[in-house]
Design a protein that fits this description.
The chain is an alpha+beta fold and about 350 residues long. It has three domains: about 210 residues, Jelly Rolls, CATH 2.60.120.10; about 45 residues; about 55 residues, Arc Repressor Mutant, subunit A (Orthogonal Bundle). Helices cover about 40% and strands about 25% of the residues. It is built from eleven helices and 15 strands. The strands form two sheets. Strands 2, 3, 4, 5, 6, 8, 11, 13, 14 and 15 form a ten-stranded antiparallel beta sheet that branches. It has a five-stranded mixed beta sheet with strand order 1-7-12-9-10, with no helix packed on it. Helix 5 crosses helix 7. The N and C termini lie far apart (about 65 Å). InterPro entries: Homeodomain-like_sf, HTH_AraC, PchR_regulatory_protein, Tscrpt_reg_AraC-type_HTH.
Length: about 350
């Protein structure tokens, strides 16, 4: 199938979805974020945008159900600082002036400044892509980061000379703390004027965490080079986002672009556990959260984790925690009743 070529401005020329047979837009959260209709193109798919604009920042919460392979060209120059938190899907980007590509995967982020136009984004079809895009005023960003460390000094130098840059070469992992802030930004609980204040404060806190991560780049070890360590950290974030899915070593190897030996050896070296033991840990901890809720039966929790028979789940849970799910849940109920 041939790749469809679009300009970024074409996204706003899509047909508005008004047919019950066309894809449904995803639910919107909060009147303070201005929302487009669900936009549709027979080859490009459906796209939903939520936008919020403030004095020094612009936010776009985007979901795109991509129908076929797309090459998206950005022909409009921008002097702002652009940040992408990739929540779902994949996109491979090439920015004019940067010597390296940015291959964004679910659970990763980066920051760029590319004042020239001519950027290209490659997206494969038959995928759902979701991301939180943040645009910061250049002068506001420069005044906010200070110059107390090598990373900030380098960034200020690049801005002074109006040169393109990215926060790091490659991408970084969205941490659980970042994800919590992203959830608050996308679904703010406050109402009225407090909603806008909450969104802005969460964005600033999120950017501060991102910069802190850039200032302390992912380190390798004696046996894991930094570029491989970065990919393994991305793999770890991917597992944290998809731990309820079935995974094979071959599939995970393709995801992080490392061979199976490097995935097994490097993951154990960096995180002191194997890939599949880490998956088991994530699943059992999630099961514990569901059991603590007390509104789920053991059978329902087992089904959520993908077990065909709840007895198999009970055996696995007891092996991991020392308690059967029923005993664990009964203990929590006793605490609640007390």
């Amino acid at each position: 199938m041939a790749t469809m070529v679009l300009n970024a401005t074409d996204l706003f020329d899509f047909e508005v979805i008004n047919s019950p047979n066309k894809p449904r837009p995803f639910p919107l959260a909060g009147a303070s974020i201005k929302s487009t209709d669900a936009l549709y193109h027979p080859k490009a798919g459906s796209i939903q945008l939520k936008h919020a604009g403030f004095t020094h920042m612009q936010l776009i919460d985007m979901r795109w159900d991509i129908a076929s392979d797309i090459e998206l060209h950005d022909t409009v120059p921008s002097n702002s600082i652009s940040i992408n938190f990739m929540l779902q899907g994949t996109v491979d980007s090439r920015f004019r002036g940067l010597s390296h590509d940015l291959n964004m995967r679910a659970g990763t982020h980066n920051l760029i400044h590319t004042p020239e136009s001519g950027h290209t984004n490659q997206m494969t079809g038959r995928q759902s892509m979701a991301s939180l895009l943040i645009g910061l005023d250049r002068d506001f960003f420069a005044a906010s980061i200070g110059q107390d460390d090598a990373w900030s000094e380098q960034i200020l130098t690049e801005l002074h000379h109006d040169r393109p840059f990215s926060g790091v070469k490659g991408v970084q992992t969205i941490t659980p703390q970042m994800q919590h802030l992203i959830d608050d930004i996308r679904n703010p609980k406050a109402t009225g004027p407090m909603r806008n204040l909450l969104i802005q404060s969460r964005v600033l806190e999120l950017v501060a965490l991102e910069i802190e991560q850039f200032q302390k780049p992912v380190a390798g070890s004696e046996t894991v080079p930094p570029h491989e360590a970065e990919k393994l950290h991305q793999l770890k974030a991917y597992l944290e986002a998809t731990f309820l899915e079935e995974h094979t070593l071959a599939q995970l190897s393709r995801y992080c672009l490392l061979n199976e030996f490097k995935v097994k050896k490097g993951f154990k070296e960096l995180f002191d556990t194997t890939v599949f033991n880490y998956l088991r840990k994530l699943r059992m901890e999630y099961a514990g959260k569901l059991l603590r809720n007390c509104s789920y039966t053991v059978d329902e929790v087992a089904a959520t984790l993908g077990y065909e028979h709840s007895q198999h789940f009970s055996i696995a849970y007891k092996k991991y925690t020392g308690l059967t799910p029923s005993h664990y849940q009964q203990g929590k109920k006793s605490v609640v009743m007390a």
